[in-house]
């Protein structure tokens, strides 16, 4: 073992080839080699013996609303990346909306990068935004390093980020295909939403009825049709409706370039258990019934769904009024994604290899981050150290994101993140960030 400054040793290292005892040698912030557990350590290398704790690749969360600058009272790069580090996430990708400005031009991207750079405790990438009016900005944003482009097919919730109609979707997709980019889509159909009974009041059933599965199913079909027709690489964000799965599975089987993510809340929370007035559970599309959740797990198991990412979308507590019509939609969960998903995954017979694939490897591949997402030679030395059998009870006040609201409050979860490492440097230990911010801004291909 030559030229390593750090060696992390565990009886359970999660690698692309499976979980096994290993010693991971780190040099210059990259993984130099994954060696046998008892490999001889070079003189001068620091050895970190993790015992039975599991060494996972640092998670890559490609769906985070940081809201900074402009709505930084909702969330900011300092608080979001503290929460990420504490939760085992080493790379997050910021969504282009809810900040002011939205990430829809190169100068807007630069404004966001300036705010993120000094505050980032984990690596941060950026999605650009595709609006009806900015087709000419897409290629410059791509060349400036954004990882892809987000669009909505229905109202986004903020007026500075309007949705695309079907014609505009095609125009954006054609432009993005021309430079080999990626289009990621909030897929709910505005016609179905407008035709559904409007929601007001505290009843969760009313909210659920206002965002029917058909709105997602039809929008997903439109995305698949666009990807198939134009050859654009397209990705379906936060899939909730299992009714859309057959169309996606069929498209993948015939080689349409489409990928899909779902979120911890769709995999671990059910409509049946949401108390009336509990708008910390409000998100769009909504958390649906238990049978729907079972189908999402089956789709993960068979590979129809690729990624599990947070869609962390917080706001100030005053916007979470106990009325599902008026409350801001969004679930705050950045720090809890790994234990939330692991808690349910283990009950359903899945392993940490599966969790690492869904929450690190696949999101890194989606975003084109070649050096992230797996423990193998040549990748960044980004790790999460997990005690998978230990439990804890979620106390919102102990979390690091800005406003102490989360749908997971009071839940007991399996999996305690012992420490998090970014490019060979410990950035969090026992749920607390350590050291000065050392995150970098990452571009496509990083
Ligand atoms: Zn989102």
Automatic annotation (TrEMBL):
User: In the UniProt record, does the keyword Membrane occur?
Assistant: no
Q: What class of enzyme is it?
A: hydrolase
Specify the Amidohydrolase-related domain's residue ranges: 54-134, 231-425
Q: Could you tell me the EC number(s) of this protein?
A: 3.5.2.5
One family from Pfam that matches here is Amidohydro_1
What are its cofactors?
Zn(2+)
GO terms for MF: allantoinase activity; cobalt ion binding; zinc ion binding
A GO BP entry is: purine nucleobase catabolic process
Q: Which residues cross the membrane?
A: none
- State the family it belongs to: Belongs to the metallo-dependent hydrolases superfamily. Allantoinase family.
Assembly information from the UniProt record: Homotetramer.
| The protein, known as | allantoinase
Source organism of the structure: Streptomyces cinnamoneus
What is the name of the gene encoding this protein? allB
